[in-house]
Design brief:
Elements (H helix, E strand, L loop, with lengths): L1 H9 L27 H14 L12 H25 L7 E5 L7 H8 L5 E8 L6 E9 L2 H11 L3 E2 L2 E2 L1 E4 L5 E5 L7 H11 L3 E9 L2 E13 L2 H12 L11 E5 L16 E5 L7 H8 L5 E5 L11 E6 L2 H7 L7 E3 L5 E3 L1 E4 L5
Antiparallel strand pairs: 1-3, 1-6, 2-3, 4-5, 7-9, 7-10, 8-9, 11-13, 11-16, 12-13, 14-15
């Protein structure tokens, strides 16, 4: 039971943590009339400006309300700049380390003593039981840079500390957004300008092209940010009711990071998948048969449901890490039959825990 509890603590079960599959993305409604009449209005404006040259206006003649609006606008822009700078001053993604295997009486001071010799620490969070205040046996240490975080993993993983063997890996912080309902006629430059205006820190902008029509996109994109704080700031800006993409209301959710090679000591041991959206009454043999096309499956674990509830997730363990990496490729899709006539599409990701 303790093992299951620890696994749940390490795995983010929030649906928002998963990117939307291509097949599930709704086609955005294109506004055929968008932009019509713009040229005509512009021509009238130019004609008026030629006929009526405005005389030089004394500052004292400007209505007080107009001056206040300009001052408020300037104040808001300055406030935004300060906020953006504050977000960019936070550590980048990939600089926070998960440390497991800790004793229940571990303190922040203990971890600072352990980690400070490795490099500058930004923050330490010891995860505690809400009812007892006792440590759950793991913590997160945010360093100032990615290099120091990687160094910490290499030096602390499998190290003995206060009579316990530590387990270390990079923390899975969210920094990638899925944005749907993008106008399909938009170019990458047009989309990039909109993203830049919503907040700071956008590092990689991937507007998915339509393979059948190179001049159009598929109506969705992925954006990777400098850190979680920048991503969350932009996510909130785009989630506002007033925010539109050329008249379209966008779908904005968290997306999984792209799977990239991870050569850390802990990651090199990962051979298991976390599988979500499993229909009720699915047998372990069904999952084993579904996933063994990538390699030998050593076991399938489906935790029992809590009293009065249900569990729609499980774990698939491979004999080789290479098999697990093949399974999580974005090109792979997994579907399984549920209660007739429903078909369930499974969501998967690599997990990090001691097997």
């Amino acid at each position: 039971m303790a093992e299951n509890t620890e696994i749940e603590d390490r795995v983010d079960l929030d649906d928002d943590n998963y990117s939307e599959e291509d097949d599930d993305v709704e086609e955005p409604m294109e506004d055929e009339g968008a932009g019509e009449g713009g040229e005509e209005n512009d021509e009238e404006s130019h004609e008026d400006s030629g006929k009526h040259q405005s005389p030089v206006t004394d500052k004292n003649d400007i209505p007080a309300g107009h001056v206040e609006d300009e001052e408020n606008s300037a104040f808001i822009k300055e406030e935004e700049k300060e906020k953006h700078a504050e977000l960019l001053d936070l550590p980048p993604h990939g600089s926070e380390v998960f440390i497991g295997g800790l004793s229940r009486d571990i303190s922040e001071e203990d971890l600072r003593e352990l980690c400070e010799p490795l490099g500058e620490i930004f923050e330490i969070r010891v995860m505690k039981n809400r009812d007892t205040g006792e440590s759950k046996g793991f913590a997160f240490v945010a360093f100032r840079t990615k290099d120091v975080a990687q160094k910490a993993i290499e030096e602390l993983h499998n190290k003995e500390f206060k009579g316990r063997i530590l387990r270390c890996s990079l923390s899975e912080t969210k920094y990638r957004l899925f944005i749907g309902n993008v106008p399909k006629v938009w170019t990458e430059d047009e989309f990039t300008k909109i993203i830049a205006a919503t907040g700071p820190g956008a590092e990689t902008i991937e507007l998915i092209k339509d393979p059948q029509n190179p001049g159009r996109n598929r109506g969705f994109a992925f954006v990777e940010y400098y850190n979680n704080a920048c991503a969350d700031y932009s996510r909130q800006q785009m989630a506002a009711a007033s925010f539109k993409l050329d008249g379209n209301t966008p779908t904005v959710t968290w997306a999984d990071p792209k799977i990239t090679p991870d050569h850390s000591a802990a990651a090199a041991q990962v051979k298991a998948l976390y599988v979500k959206n499993i229909p009720e009454n699915t047998q372990t043999e069904q999952l084993k048969e579904l996933f063994q096309r990538h390699g030998e499956v050593t076991k399938v674990v489906m935790p029992p449901a809590k009293s009065g509830g249900k569990r729609d997730f499980g774990f698939v363990h491979y004999a080789e890490r290479s098999s697990a990496l093949k399974a999580v490729k974005e090109t792979e899709k997994y579907e399984i039959n549920g209660p007739f006539p429903h078909t369930f599409y499974l969501q998967i990701k690599l997990v990090v825990f001691k097997t």
